[in-house]
Amino acid sequence: MEFVTQNIWLILLAAISGFMLLGGGGLFGRLSGVKQIGPQEAVLLFNHEDALVLDVREQSEWSDGHIAKARHIPLGQLKNRIADLEKYKGKPIVAVCRSGNRSGSACGLLKKAGFENLHNLAGGMIAWDQAGLPKEK
Q1: Is residue 8 situated within a structural domain?
Q2: Which of 121, 97, 137 has the alpha carbon at shortest distance from 35?
Q3: Which domain holds residue 12?
Q4: CA distances from 31 to 34, 36, 40, 52 (A)
Q5: Is 90 helix (H, G, I), strand (E, B) or coil?
Q6: Most buried in the list 50, 78, 103, 125, measured by CB within 10 Å?
């Protein structure tokens, strides 16, 4: 019990980290206005709401295969190329990377630039591949 009282902040930090790793991070995504979606939800957005797929992976990853009709802007270039996306401001945007981390950062940049209908493909292209969905090269 003495250990707990002396290390309460460390224990709370570990608990919050565990919560985030187990999927609680989606809560923070919803609070920030960015929805975490799976591959099936992404397909529905593409097919029914004409969503833009924004692939923020590096060129080598893009060349290995990407979602059809995706727009490719590597995350490192996104800040300087946001103007290229202005015409999509009123449309849903689904950001994609390999695992969902870089695309989450991309959503944050877009949110700061005034984009509102943002979705992050949770699990990225790894989840897309696991769902058996098609890619093009």
Answers
A1: yes
A2: 121
A3: 1-25
A4: 7, 11, 22, 22
A5: coil
A6: 103
How far is CA 130 from its chain centroid?
A: 17
Whether residue 13 is found in the same domain as residue 43: no
CB 97 within 8 A of CB 71: no
pLDDT (tens, 9 = 90+) of the chain, 137 residues, equals 677 567 677 766 666 655 555 444 444 444 456 899 999 999 999 999 999 999 999 999 999 999 999 999 999 999 999 999 999 998 999 999 999 999 999 999 999 999 999 999 999 999 999 999 999 99
| Contacts of residue 88, Cβ cutoff 8 Å, sequence gap at least 6 | 52, 115
8 A C-beta contact, residue 49 and residue 92:
yes
Place of tokens 């590597």: 74
